[in-house]
Every structure is written in C-alpha cells, then in structure tokens.
User: Fold these one by one.
Assistant:
Number 1:
Amino acid sequence: MAQTPQAKYRKDYQSPSHTITDVDLTFELQETQTTVTAISNVTQLGDQTSLKLDGESLTLKTVSVNGETWANYTETEGGLEIHALPNQFELTIVTELNPAENTALEGLYLSDGAFCTQCEAEGFRRITYFLDRPDVLAKYTTTVIADQEKFPSLLSNGNRIDQGTLKGNKHWVKWQDPHPKPSYLFALVAGDFDILRDNYKTKSGRDVQLEIYVDKGNLDRANHAMVSLINAMKWDEERFDLEYDLDIYMIVAVDFFNMGAMENKGLNVFNSKFVLANEKTATDTDYLGIEAVIGHEYFHNWTGNRVTCRDWFQLSLKEGLTVFRDQEFSSDLGSRAVNRINNVRIIRGPQFAEDASPMSHPIRPEKVIEMNNFYTLTVYEKGSEVIRMIHTLLGEEKFQKGIKLYFERHDGTAATCEDFVSAMEDASGISLKHFRLWYSQSGTPTVEVSSDFDESHSTYTLKVKQHTAPTADQAEKQALHIPFAVELYNSDGTTIDLVSNGQSVSNVLSLTESEQVFTFEGVNEKPVPSLFLEFSAPVKLEYDYDDQELSFLMVHANNEFSRWDAGQMLLAKHIKSNIERVQQNQECIVPESILAAFKGVLANKELDPALVAEMMTLPSFNEVSGWYDLIDVDAIDNVLTVFKASLANELKSELEQVYQRLEQGEYSLEHSAIGQRALRNCCLAYLARTESGQQLVEQQYQSAHNMTDTMAAMQAANSAQLSCRSGLMEDYSQKWKHDGLVMDKWFQLQGSNPDAGALKAIKETMNHEAFSMKNPNRVRSLIGAFMNTNPVNFHAKSGEGYQFAGEILRELNESNPQVASRLLDPLLKLKKYDSHRQALIRNELVTLKNMNNLAKDLYEKVTKALEE
Ligand code: TRP
Ligand code: ZN
C-alpha cells in the first residue's frame, strides 16, 4: 500500500470553507477518453482563500477562474488545491477520464456499452474535481454530447431543456435540475435502450412522465417495475402525504452495478436484478424484491434527496428511515406478518452477526476509513428498527406529525440524525432523551425475563434485566430505552388487560434500567406471556418457556407474528439441545412436541398459507451459528439436516396432502397465490427428503410454467442432494445460458451445492459462458453463495474453501474493491471458529494485508479482524 489509509471521525466534522451554488457540466462522451468541463459558481464561507477540491483518478486539463487561466494550484493525493482566490468566482475545470477501464463501477463507467454513473458515496470526485461532500448543495445543468447512433438516449437529472445535433453524427441534450442537491445524487446515462412509458398525476395535479430504460429486447420484463413505481407514488401520498416534485421520473436498468439501486434525483439507476421480471424469468421473491427496491428509491426522493445528510456519519438518517418506509409500503400492499418475519430474520441472522464482528458499529458510526464499508445491515436494517421503535413509542399519528415537522424544518437542507429525533420529540411531546443512545451504542442487547404468578394476591410479575455485551468498537455499554410489547394469555386464549397500581397500562412497557420489575393485578390464573410482540425491539430475548407454552402460543396468539415467533422459539430450544447431544456423540432426536405442533400448523386450514410456509421454515445455518461464541459447523449442519429429514418423514402424508391441494392453474401475482406457491414449494422441499421425493421434484420441474415453481424444484433437488440434480441443472443451463440474470439463480445453486465435490465444480463453473468476474451479480451469485450458504464446503478443514476465497479476493481487490470488501465479510468472523480453522483464515487475511496495492476498503476490515 502506498500510504496507510487515514480514518475520519464523526466528532471532527467541520462545515465547508466554500460552497458551490450552481454547476454547469458538459460531457463529451467517448469510451476511452471522455472530457468533462465543470463550471462552478463558488462562494467563500469562512476566511480561507484556498479551495481544496476532492478528485481521484482524473487527468487534469485546465483550470480557470472568472474566465482566465489560473496557474496557482497544486495537485495533491486526494485532489486539487487552488490558491489565492477571490471571495466569489466562476471556476472552470476540464478533466479527462477513461470510462472503459473503470471496472470499480464508481464514477463514470460502461455497462455493456452504455455509459452510466454511480456517485454515492464519494464517486463524483472520479468525474471532476469538486466539493464532494453531502452538505454542499448546488443546482446542476448538464449537457451530454455523444454519438447519435450508439447512444440515442442521453439522460441526466431534472428536466430536458434543450437538444440538438452536431457534425460527425453527434447529438446533445441539455438537462436542468431545479432542486439543489449534493454531488452524490448526480447521474448521467447514455445508451441505446428500449423504453417503457407511462404517466402519473399527483394528487395536487402535476403530470409526471414515467420512463423505464432497459436493454433492447427486455420490454416484456419491465411491467412489474412500472406498476411498483405507480403504487409507490400513490402510497407515499396516502400514508406520508408526500408528492413527487419534478415532471419526469426515469429508471435505468443496468447489468453492471455494485449494489441494488441508486436514488439519483429524477434518474434512478438500478441493478437490472431489481427491474427485470416476467413469470418465466423471475420468482415471486424477485417480484417482491423489485417492489421493495423501486419503492425504496422512490421514497428517497423526500427522505434523502429533499432532506439529505450533513455528513456520511449520518447515513442512517436517510437509509434507516427509507428502509422503514419501504417496509411499511410492502406491508401495506402485501402480508404484514410475512414482511415482518423476513425483516426479523435479517436482524436475528446477519445483523446480529455484524454486531458481534470486528466491524461492529452503531447505526451512526463514529469512525470511518472507507465510507463504502458502512452501507451495512446495521445502518440500514437496524437503523430501520430504530425508526420503528420511535413509531411504536409515538404511534402513527404523532409519528406523522414528527415527519411533517422534520420537513418543515429541514426541507432543502443537509440534516443530522439529531435533527430527526428532535423533530419527533417536539412534534409528539414525548421525550426521546434516553432513546437517543440507540444512535451511539453498538451491539445487541440481551433481555432476560423471568415471571412469577402469585395466586393468593392475583398478581403476575415480570422481572426484566437488560445487558449489552462489549463489542469490538466499544467496551462500555449502558442500559437502553427499549420498548417492550407484551401480552398475557389466559388458558382459553383470551388476553388479560394490563393493570398496575389500579391503573390500566399500555401493553408497550418501557425498559430503561438494567433491572426492572413490572407487577400486574387482577390476574386470576397463571398466564402465558407473549414477549416483544412484533419484535418491538432489536434484542435477544431470554425467557424459559416450556414446550407446552410455546405450542399454546403457536395456536392461540392473536398476532400472526407471535405465532411464528413461538414456533421459532420451540425449534431453537430443541435445535440447541440436540447440538449439545451431537457434540456428546449422542443421536439427534426431534421431540414429539415439535412433530405434533408442526403437524397442527400444516393441518390448520384457517391459517394464511404464506404464514404456514414461514412457520415450517427452520432457522438458517447462519442464524443458528449466531447463538454460539464458537461455531461447531458439523454439529449445526448435522442437526438441521436431521430436523428436516425427520419433519419430512414424520409429516409425510400431511405434506403430500397440502402439496396436492395447492396445485395452481394460471400464474397470478395476487398475494394469496404467492402464499399458496410458497407453502406448496415448502412442502416440496421437505418431501424431497422422503422416498417419493425424486419423482415429485422431477415432475414439478417438467410441468412448471413459472420460474417460482422451476426454481423450487431445483432448490429441492440441490439441498436434498437428489440424483436428478445434475440433469435438471444441465437442462436449465441449456435453456438460459445466454441470459446472465436468469443464470444467476443457477450460479447460486452451484455455489451452495452441499456435495463434497462442490468446490471443484464451482471452479469449473467460472468458465461458464455466462460467468464473468467483472460482473458483481455473477460474482455474488456463485462465490458469495459459496462463502455464505455452503458452510460445510467453505469451512472444510483442508482450508481449500478459504484459499479459494483468498484468491478471488486478491483478484477483486484490483478490479472492484467495493465488491471484494462485501465478499470478505464471512472471513472477518474467524474468532468464531476452532483454532485450526482460525489459523487457516488468518493466513488468508495476512496474505491480503501484505499486498502492496491493498484497497482501503479491504484494509479497513482486514486490519480490524487481525487486531481483535
Ligand atoms: N443509496 C443507495 C440506496 O440505498 C445505495 C448505494 C449506496 C449504492 N452506495 C452505492 C448503490 C453504490 C450502488 C453503488 O438505495
Ligand atoms: Zn437507500
């Protein structure tokens, strides 16, 4: 490495020395040599007469001030310092770039021949020298010039205000964005696309043109994205009273993209995975993902763009809030319980794991080396849980009052998390003084509950202790303000009204101290408590339920989430005890209580099939791993496999009945149809582990008329290791080998193949015509799946899984550090494995650390992991 990368601290924030009010950009686009002319109106804010601009990988051509060449500047490592400037001036900078060589996919790059940009977080500095920080808000005018035939569509933010042609078969379009914005929201796209058009009239009467740009030939896959966009626009008006603010909204789908999508003002750029779908190419999960991401980016127009972040430490201000909004959108349109269950699975699995890793950080980080490393589950998903807790404490009405005040105060500015919390507090009159600690304290709290029923006084007492273990970034922890939603059930399934000191009390209790006692009066029989309803806080619950109580809640709890949660606790309890048994060389036995409870769930025709499918799904390997300080890979895998096989064989006839009963005709995206397919395919996954499994799986593969059912058959064959697997894989590959996006599902199956020879096959798969190390979706599908969902092979004692990961990471370090850094995550958790595996992982990390061109993305994580 040239220089040790330097960390930035939240506490060191300083307002900018200058601001840029207007910027006029001209792009002369050519694949290997693009010229960018940036004319900025700059105003000095303090007493500094030098201006330090950010810039990376740029070739500087000229600098002028007020139209005259300016020689008084120095080029530095991270940018350009211009000296002895007047108070206010027009700055013209010409730079040159090479988009064709940009494999990092940050700044201006080529995706399958189309130009596109990605500027968040700090990519604009790869386009021109600029004050590339979110608290500098400017109005942008952008002229794009390119070859007319190769690039018929020339797009940027805002409204198209002028266009024309030039000699040499070139044309140009001029765009103007009336809304001041930070540089990270800038976007430009140039290419040859098919365009799906529609329009939307906002509730105050604005006519908005909607345009979705997709690769030629993909128009038949753009409809669901358009429907989702219109639904999102309508939902934001109804639930949040927020309307769109430009006359055009464009979405461009590209195949080469580092993340999911980007909310650039008026011109969203999307990973094609979150736009393209038809029933033959996409699964129900893909459809729901598209709805969520289209919603997410649209909702950023207010929470992110109209009010943006003062500095990158405040990222959760826009991301936590926008994830909360997209979750509510999906829940209002579909099944609230299923959405909540899937979000909670993410928190309990990978987010808790991140909290316990060397990268542990609060939702508002204190220290950052590479900002791209902080687009994390903690900032996004836990950030959303923090917003949800505020919503729980205030209720919908006061929460909406808070949102309104937030926009009254901060519209058009760059704000902080503190600004958001203050607005919520001031609008509601509810103190969030103690609650704010969630923004600065990292780690997962454990809440230990015990209960006592006093028959003679008819009282019931909950004794609650909270504790947060030290994390890699923070040794000392304090008690948090935790909303603790509870219900108490009588044996007949009715709930008891909570009364304390003669007063009726809310069922959302506030935990604020490390130990608290709550006593309820008028309780005449020993109740069954349901705790942390709807997962009212992102904590680990410890309560000593017996099997009967959990089975009771699975049937009688009012709320679908509570029923699912009780089922998960019952499974967790017995998975844990069996892991211990296996570690003592005893047999793994699935108890009768579980078989009976899940038989009941399957037989209950009153339950929503989508919920039954969720209830029947065991916690993942990764979630189970999170319960332990030391992960016993083989014992966990063994127990989960035996549980699946036992449930399959013991519940075979019930599974078969449900499978047959839910046979469908036409494919429909109605939520009830999605739920029925989910349950039917969940049954198939179990039945694949029984004697008749192979036949059923092959039959479903042959007769499937949509991708959901096709993939369910392949997944079942893959995880149950059926001998038909290779035939189905071959057939699918023949059919889809020319379509990378559809092949990603196949690459994922190759990556997660539990077979002992999987790694060899994965290495061969890298030569498949649809695979490319330059495409992040392909890399994540094949190699990401191997590292995250193939525990037995990835953690093979031989070390070959780790070595393979190391080779890949060294290659990606050079071509695309952002993708490399995300892929690295499972290796950071080395401390959770036995000393043999730890040494093997450490080896790979040390090799990376010693590379002389290690990117700062990897440097930050590798050094943290090795320090621990
Ligand atoms: N702001 C984007 C979102 O949450 C995500 C994002 C951040 C991103 N950095 C990125 C997307 C880099 C692509 C590349 O919607
Ligand atoms: Zn976002």
Number 2:
Amino acid sequence: MDYFENVPKVQYEGKNAKSKYAFRHYNPEEIIMGKPMKDHLRFSVAFWHTMTEDGSDQFGDGTYQRNWEGSTPMETAKNRVDAFFEILEKLGAEYFCFHDVDIAPQGDSLKEFLENIDVMTDYIKGKMDKTGVKLLWNTANMFTHPTFVNGAATTNNADVYSMAAAQVKKGLDVSKKLNGENYVFWGGREGYENLLNTDMNFELDNLARFYQMVIDYAQKIDYHPQFLIEPKPKEPTKHQYDYDAATAMAFIQKYNLEDSFKLNLEANHATLAGHTFEHELNVAKNYNALGSLDANQGDLLLGWDTDEFPTDIYTATLAMYEVLDFGGIAPGGLNFDAKVRRTSFAMDDLILAHIAGMDTYARGLRAAAKMKDDNFFEQIIANRYESFSSGIGKQIVENKEDLESLTNYALSLNGVENKSGHIEHLKSLLNDYLV
Ligand code: XLS
Ligand code: NI
Ligand code: NI
C-alpha cells in the first residue's frame, strides 16, 4: 500500500520551486567543501515522533490523521514500518533511529517483548536491504513503562536494573543485526526527584557499572557502534544526571569511559539547560566528543521539550559551523528528533516538516561553509587574542612565566588598555552570511 500516494519523491528544485514537495535548498549531491551535502548532513528520521504519536497533549486528544492502524498490535507495527520506509524513500533520507518500544509491541512480559523485537527487526532488515537505508542509532526506552518509575541504571531496585540490562543487551544485538552506526543512551529517568532519599554517588557508580557492562558485551559480540550519551537537564526527571554536555563529560571522564562514549546533542535540550545549541557543540568539540545531533528546536517562551522541527537558520548555521570545524559529524548524523505541531495533523505534514528541517540545515551548511572559507571566526578569534601571540602573552602560553615574574611585569606597566569586542558589528557581519 502507498501511504502517501499524493506525495511524489521529493527533489531539489531550487529557490523558485513550484511544488511544495520540493527541496529549495537541500541538494543532496551538490559538493560543498569537497563532499556531497548529504554526507555532511546524514539526515535521519526518528521513528517515534513520526510513526507512533497522535498529537495528544495533557489537555486534549490526538488530532493526527493517520492510516496505518491495523487490527492487531503486530499488524500496526508492520504497517508503520511500511509507511516509515515510504517516508524515508520519498525524502531521500538515508538514516533512521528508533527506540525498542517504537517498533515492537511490549506484550505482557519481557520475554514476549524481546520476541516481538526479533520479529520486527527481521522485517526492518528486509526493508533496509531493499532500500539501502541505514540505521543511525537505536536505543532502549527505559522511561515510559512503570517498571522504571525510580530509574533504570540508576534505580534503587536491583531487579529493575536487571530488566534494563536485558533491554540494552537486546538493543546491542539489534544494533549488530542492523549494522547500527551508533547506540544512544538517553536517561529520561536517570536522575533524582529528592535528595532526601537519594544516594547520588551510589546511583552514578551503578550507572558507570552499567556502561562498563555495555562495553564488555559489545566486545563479546564483536560489534562496536559509537556509544552516545544524550544530555538533558530535566524532564521527565526533575534533576537529570546528564544535565548538559559539560556534566556528561565530567561523568565520562570520572569513570574512564572516554574511549567508548561520545555525546548526542539535542538543540531543545541545550536551551532547556540554559545554553545555546552551538555552546553544547562547542563544549563537545573541545572534548573531542561531538558524536551526533538531535536536530530539533525548542520554543524559548516555553520551559519544556517541545521537539519542534528546526527552522531557525541562525542556530543551524552556528551548529553546522561547529560540525565543519570538528571535521564532520560521521559516524553520527542529524536526526530529526522532532514532531509536527498538534495543528499540523495532515499526513503530508510529516513530509513537509522534514523538508523544512532539511532545507534549514542545508542553508545552515551553506552559510557555515562560506564562513569557514572566509576564515570568519578564525580572524575574529586571532584578533581578539592577539596579545597572546607575542611578547609576554606568548611567554605565558609557552608556560615560561610564573606568578612572581608576572608580578614584576605587571608592576612595570603604566595601566592597561582593553580592546572593544564590537559584538553588534560582528552580529551584523554574521547576518550577511544568513541572507
Ligand atoms: C527526549 C529525548 C529522546 C532521545 C532518545 O527528550 O530527546 O527522544 O533522543 O531516547
Ligand atoms: Ni533526543
Ligand atoms: Ni528531547
């Protein structure tokens, strides 16, 4: 069955495209800085938002018009996979991501769930072989089911910890089966509600122990996707342990996990943590841990994870600048961890929303490449830190000075002269790259 019969395969038609089902900026094969746009961007569609949601919120019922409901949970699951691969093909997106619960009904027991995962991943593998679409990452959902009310790898309940282990073991088996390039850990319930009953140190030790088991099992089955931790400050847990990139890196370094773990950074999580997206990417870059991106956007007027499709060219440009500066995002990619608004309930909104996101990041890539080409930031930075390139500054960065020698130097000065940052002027120059 054709689920989107009125939607053609989306092509690049340029800025004057007539069809709304066309890319106006994303031209997959166009070479930018030596490689095709599609290889810079490595777009991925998220199974959960795209296939399993209905548009309901705390105040109202679902609104999305969908046509893949079957007569049994397994039939619905298969229909969803069919429709999903149709979307991937129509968009020309080469990657996808999913949680275990997105693709397989949980049934009444862990055993049934694991069996359903086997059946469904066989089915998905068939589709992948036929279409050439690849798995960017999979993950285990250990935050929806009531079992994980007190956390998964940071729970107080050893039986629950074991349930989490079983789900992640299966996740790694699936990653191997489907050639996953990354495997994600987002700890929705890994955090605490109140310190009155929480041993934070114990919980973090257990989390690290869990990750060590993951590394050991990957070794055992000889499959090595890049492991990614996805930071988020809060929601659903009040205080989440992987608060932001810097906090996640402190954890990774404390437990010596840096050889196996990098970060999956999400734009909306960055803003929830009080950072810009580019701040999070910059931090990760500095730790050599820029793994992959959940390319969405939040609403700065709202304090929660709205998971909107990215349409902000400003952020997309600065994010792509960090990606280019890091030397690329592979084996990671740009996953649209985003959902259409409740009011965008038509089937084709799923396609239109992805086109909007892909065009936005294509524009970001183009602008960032031009900025790289012009050495835009390099010049600003070189100029701003000029005092460290010669004289006493050079001595400092070469570690040739100490507090006493610098005191003598400071005493010899006749006051200091600071330079203006000219920040408004720089913002205006940046605007020239965007429009
Ligand atoms: C939720 C997270 C989630 C992860 C995968 O806020 O973004 O969707 O990306 O579990
Ligand atoms: Ni995410
Ligand atoms: Ni999120």
Number 3:
Amino acid sequence: MTSILTAFENQTLPQSYLEADQQELCARITRAKQTLGTDLLMLAHHYQKDEVVAFADETGDSLQLAQIAAKNKTAKHIVFCGVHFMAETADMLTDPHQQVLLPDLAAGCSMADMANRHQLTIAWEVLQKQWPAEIIPITYVNSSAAVKAFVGDHGGAIVTSGNADTILRWAFTQKKRVFFLPDQHLGRNTAYHMGIPLAEMALWDPLTSQLLTNAGQEPLTNEQAPDTKVILWNGWCSVHQQFSVKQIETLRQSIPNLSVIVHPEAPHEVVEAADDYGSTNKILQVVQASPAGTKWAVGTDHNLVARMAKQLCPTHEIHFINPVACACLTMNRIKLPHLAWCLEELAAGRSVNRITVDPATTASALKALDRMLALS
Ligand code: 13P
Ligand code: SF4
C-alpha cells in the first residue's frame, strides 16, 4: 500500500523543471499538448498568470469553468489552472473516465479554508435550535467538497459570484432564512441588493460559535433574532479585503470621470462606493462593453486587472484600485514548471496531482451543484 508520505513525495516537482528556462518550458508544454490532443482540456481561471493563460483552451470565472467541465464528456484529462476547490468541483461534475489535475497541490483558497464540515455541523445545530426548520444553507463555490456535500444533504445549493442573486432569490422560495457561507461579503452584498436591510443580517462566528449582529461587534439579541433573514459565515477573501472606500475616493479625485467596478468579495461599503460590481467575467464584459476611452478603476486580483490593461481592454484606461495590494498567492502557485511537469507526465501516461472526491461526498455535493447549474 502507498503511504501518505510516498504519495506526497511522488507529487513533488522534480528540480529539473525549476532549472529549465521559460523558452524551454513553453516548447515542452506545446509539445505535450500536441501529444495529448483532444484528450486534454486545459482550463484557466481569470486570475492565472499570463504565461499560463496563454496555453489554456478555455478561460473564465468559476461559474463558466464549472459549466465547461460539466459539459465536456470527451477530454480524458482536465488540467485545471486555478485553485483546489475549482478542481474538486470539476472532478465532481465530470464523468468517471475523466480525471482532473491541479498542477500545484498547494494552490488552495484561504477563504474556502475558513469553513470546514465540523464547524458547519456545530453551526447548523445551534441555528436549528434558534430557528427550527426555517433555514436553507447556501455555500459559495469557494468551499471544500465536504462543505458542499453538507449543503447538498440539507436541501441547499451552491452559488458563484456570477449567479448569487438568482440562487439567493430561489433560496427564499424554499425557506424563510438563508445561512450563507463562507464569504460574508458576497452574502451581504447580494442580499443587500435584493432589498434585505443590513439590520436583518447576522454574522456567525465559527471560532466562538456565536451569533453576532451584522457588524460582528455584539451578540445578536432575542429582539433582533426574529427579523434575521440572512446569517453570514464570518469568512472573507484576503485579496478583496484590501480594497477600501478611501482608495476609491482618492482615485476619483485624481482621475476625472472615473468609473469603478469591483468584485462582490469586496466589503459592503466598497461595493456601495463603486459604480458596479460582479464576477470576474462580468467585470470583463462591463468594461469591454463600455465606450472606448472610458476610464475604469478595477477592484479584483492583480493578474486579471493587469491583463485587462495590457491586452483585454486595449481601448480603455484601466487602473487598479489598490496597486500595492497582494495578489492571490495561491492562484499564483500555478507556474510554467508545474504545468510542464503535469502535462509531460500525462503525455507519458502518468498522472501527477490528480484531484479526486470520494463517491459519497460527490453524490451529496452534486445535489447542491446540480441545483445551481439548473438555476444558472
Ligand atoms: P469568480 O467566480 O468571479 O471568477 O471569482 C472566483 C474567486 O475566487 C474570486 O476571488
Ligand atoms: Fe480564494 Fe480570494 Fe484567491 Fe479567490 S482571490 S481564490 S477567494 S483567496
């Protein structure tokens, strides 16, 4: 039997890939892709590095990539250039003869790691006592397969930033209250734009197992509890939390006629200070559809904003809301050496960094994923 240690060692990038230069790596990736032909489908999220996106068959936001993976029934190997929860989702949505690989296993998502099944089980018990049979769980796709499975088993659905409004509206046709995890900001921003006041939102703190008011500063009182429509998990994205109203105000002062668009993982006050908000794909579409010469400040990960400025929106003036913000470190784990290794191993008939979700978890999570895809 293979030990965990051996399995892990087998997933370690050989030194030779780190020593190869970019030109050589590109040539090797091109060769491996040619060998694999239509057996390979290479997907890349918008936050991936330019040199990785250059090799992708398809790029997109989380919703688009999940839909592409679900639709493709022919590719034997799906190399997912993104983060772990995206590869897990693709594995669950593809057929058994298809395998999903993540070029670097360290490409996780710190927000997805803020909710685990154990914490969710505790939260659910407390919330059921508070509001028996009145809550539906909704999880952002940025969550583990185990969390998705819990949500599927409890009648809930998955959302992405591209369909959160549609799914939340559906959720309220099912139950009186929504438990939204793990991103408090996406949940708050979506609910607020549906017309739910902040006073009717509460915050669940998984570290103290406490129900707090929306602002998270004091416990929710018995008087406030009956009005609560949305319970937000206290999770966030470290990249999008770096944006502030002050940055937007400063930019608006120095750049006349500036339009601002941000991702809904940004805090509520930032979304309110912007002109528009949406998924990475919506950001791209809105900016590209605006008249040439429009000046935009964009609040999302640096790789996408830089690519918009350089390549995707050549007739627009693109600014980054916070030019000194840290990029998504885990998205940036996927680099040419890992990609070359993964593809060359596949071309040689071997698999490294395969992502698999066990059948029981998959069956439960698919209930929630299929609800989302049917509604999207
Ligand atoms: P999108 O689905 O909008 O691409 O967002 C995914 C993500 O992780 C944003 O941080
Ligand atoms: Fe996760 Fe934030 Fe990175 Fe998106 S940008 S993958 S939410 S850490």
Number 4:
Amino acid sequence: MSPARRRRIVVLTGGVGGAKLVDGLYRLLPPDSLTAVVNTGDDFRHLGLAISPDIDTLLYTVSGRANRAQGWGREGETWEFMAALRSIGGPGWFQLGDGDLALHVARTHALAQGQSLSTVIAGFASAWGLAMRVLPMSDDPVATIVDTDEGSLAFQIYFVERRCAPAVRAIRFDGAVAARALPEALAAIAEADAIFIAPSNPWLSVDPLLALPGMRQALAQARVPVVAISPLVGGQAVKGPTAKLMGELGLTANNAAIAAHYAGLIDALIVHEGDDQPDGVTCHATNTLMPGERDRMRLAREALALAKTLTQ
Ligand code: GDP
C-alpha cells in the first residue's frame, strides 16, 4: 500500500443515530474516501410518493440541513403543504415538510422515468456538493415488516403512526431475499480499509442490510477491521425503540446482546463509558453521545484510531 493512499472507509447505517457518526467521519476524512451504505427497509410509498427516510436523514445531516432540535426532518422547514392537505381531509400522520416534499417528488418522478434509486440519490448528494458516496443498500424494494401483538405492521405504521407502541414479536424484510445488494456497496466493502457499523438500531436499521444476499458474507470475509458502535447508552436507546424492542424480543438491553447480534461479523465494539463490555470482542469505552459536531468528530476519530490499531 502506498503511504499516500487514502484510507477507504465504509459505514453501514440507518438514519438518525448512524447519520451522526457519518457526519463526524465526513468532517474528518479527506473528500471521497467515505462511503455510507444506507438502510432502505424503511422506504415506503405515501400519497403516491417514494419516501426514503434513512437516506434523506443522512443527506440532511451531512449537508448541514438537519433539524437537530426536532431530531428528524429539515432545519427551517415550512409546513404549507401539510396545512393544505389537512384542510381537505388528507392523512396527517406522516409529516411532509415543504422542503422535504421536494426530494420525494423529485425521487418519485425520476424513478418513474426509469432511473435507479442509487442514481437519484447520487444526484441529490452531488447537487448539495457532498464529496462522499451515499449508497442505498439496494436498488430493489425491500420492506421492513414488524410482527406485533396488534398484527403485522408496515414499518412506518409501527414507527410513526403507532409510535412503536405495539409489542414486537418478530421483524421481517419483505423482498430482501430476491433483492440484489447494490454492487457498488459490495465493492466498497471489498475494497475498504475499515468498516463501521453505525450506532443504528441493529434489528430495524442494520438487519435489513444484512438480510441482502451476499452482504453478510462480504462483511464476514472482510480482511479489514469491522467495528460496531453501540446504540445503547446506559442500557437505553438515545432515541427510538431499540431498548424496548430488545426487551420484547426477549433480550437484555445491554452491549452483550449487541455483540452477540453481530457475532462473526465484528472485530470490535465501541461502548458508552461505564456500560458493560462483553467478553469475546475487543471493546473500547468512550462517550458515544453525539449531540454536536465536536462529539461526532471525536467519536469518529476514536473509531478510526481503533480500526487502525486492529489493522496492525
Ligand atoms: P432511524 O432509522 O432514523 O431510527 O435511525 P438509526 O437506527 O440510525 O438510529 C436510531 C438509533 O440511534 C437508536 O438506537 C439510538 O440509541 C441511536 N443513537 C441516536 N443518537 C445516538 C448517539 O448520539 N450516540 C449513540 N451511541 N447512539 C445514538
């Protein structure tokens, strides 16, 4: 390896939690050395529009457009469309801000014209001047279905409309077996110098990626460090249903369960300081909370340093 060659970093990620780590890495790394492979199991059609929540969250976060206080959507968003929709009795359970809507309309139009999702997303990233690659995990549709005590629910119904209240019994990824992992994503994993599994929900945000043919094998066969960052802090999720879901699946919400979930795939786990450090995997404890830029960059720097020590 030439000493001047850039380290190629791949992150497997969902939306909110993962995007923060990707943001930290993006601010640290030279342009074009970072690739995010993003969950599309949350994607759905609403009012005829193709919506990709995790990809859009990542794009908003890394381009500085995310609404941090709210934890989702865009900063400075306006809501004329929703008000007009409600005034004619349209569905109000899924919030579509005016700026956000532009992405959904443009994506739906481009897909209808025959463009692939990965091409559409590359177009958005390039329009916003992002130098990193944002890859959907697949160009084929995959739908996360949550089997609950109230029956089988499409992911957004469970997550947004029912606010994760139903007890989860099992999670399925419709279409995953027939879907093709994005070839560029598999290639990026094969060529990476380090691979991170972001602090995203392992069951809802990372498992859809792992369900794609070839993805799990690509990770297991990687000869470079694979490092996961735990989404748990003090046995709780920072945001969202991770801990509740783990309990419903019969698991204890701790890092031992996260490590067991990624067994055979990861070489190291970054855990929040003071939390459990499971045996059988290298653990690095630090403050994993990433509210601001400096926290994101610090955690990204530590993750890169850990991967480097594992390479040597
Ligand atoms: P979603 O698809 O938008 O729900 O996004 P993710 O799955 O990527 O994010 C949800 C997960 O991110 C939850 O399990 C949170 O605990 C985790 N998370 C959010 N913010 C942070 C943070 O600052 N640090 C850590 N370690 N985890 C976080």
